[in-house]
Give the backbone structure.
Amino acid sequence: MRLLTLVVIFASFYMAFCEKARFDNYRVYSMIVENEEQLRILQELENHRDGIEFLESPNSIGDFTELIVPPHKLADINDLFEKYEIKSLAKSNNLQKLIDEEQPQFSSRATFSWEKYYDLDDIYKWLDEMLEEYPNELTNYNYGTSYENRPLRAIKFSRKSGNPLIFIESTIHAREWVTAATATYILNELVTSDDPEIKELADNYDWVIIPVFNVDGYSYTHSKNRLWRKSRSSNGLYPFCVGTDLNRNFDFHHAEAGASRNPCYETYAGTKPFSEKETQALAEFVSNFDNIKMYISFHSYGQMLLFPYGHTKSHAKNFHDMNAIGLKAKEGIKKRYGTNYIVGSIAEAIYLASGSSIDWAYAQRNVSLTYSFEFRDARNGNYGFILPANFIIPNAVEVLDGLKAMTKQAKSLKYF
């Protein structure tokens, strides 16, 4: 009996860490937690799982949450929804089909483009090529190493000294592939575009861009599990609950609200603020710049533009200015394709979430304007995190339109 148990444990370990995860006929459900009983039962479900995985952890009433249900648990989950009157939306009946169709079958270009998603090695190779081609404008920073010893890289773009600095941190959550694609697209446009509005951004602002912050998790989404969110650090006593939510690990109201102390949760905040090598390195790197006027974090999905605070619904001191700048960005984003964004503070527009990078940059690094973009898809859309590659360029173009509008409004309000 003991031998059989060991065989089962080994088989589980092999499936978890060696084979690439597949989601054939898995269904994705989304819902809003409406009351205490629903919150309790969903948290109990996340604790025991039984093959069900949460994409968004339920932390409080009003939270948006998502879960992935394998075929053999569909009847059970529907019984649970009915019993506790949980209103759910089935967003996908076959998650693997979405994953299989995310990348194009054929790409017309042999070189780096924005027709498909690239892994970390390809992105870093492209950065090296850009640095070689534009040595007078681009500067590379290897600002640390990850838990799995991958280099953490940032690129600074500058055409003249004394410019105000805009800092972009992208892909803190590993599965949000469109964020890395958008960050590289924007960097490329700043360097190469002849569009007068983009040249205005390129000539009059410095930019520091981290295309992939969560390098270990991002690599894992390409090699093992497309839906992985967290870092890949070990949690000691919980060998099967790997990783920390890096966007809950910053030193500002750490783990107070909208974050978990359970290593098995998607929103696990870590043992303490800056417990992770990645967040430590970013904090030290940011401290090297004394002229950051705007800090932006790229996320997906939900089509939102969020600003502090996340730990409370109380308003930040320049709430009205941040909101006004956000509303101008919303107008800019919408004008080209009609994409509609929600604008508001994190806690009011989406949910409570403490320990985020933008709250930390705002409160601890005194950056007066900090924002999180939540890119396409819409909350009620069909794709969620698995946004097909043909949406990369439309998403990136409209985000760049939003950045144009943000900088103009911020300048008019004397932030630049």
Q: What stands out?
A: The chain has two domains: 21-96, 120-412. The CA atoms of residues 249 and 276 lie 7 Å apart. The longest strand covers residues 292-302. Residues 120-412 form a domain with the Aminopeptidase fold (CATH 3.40.630.10).
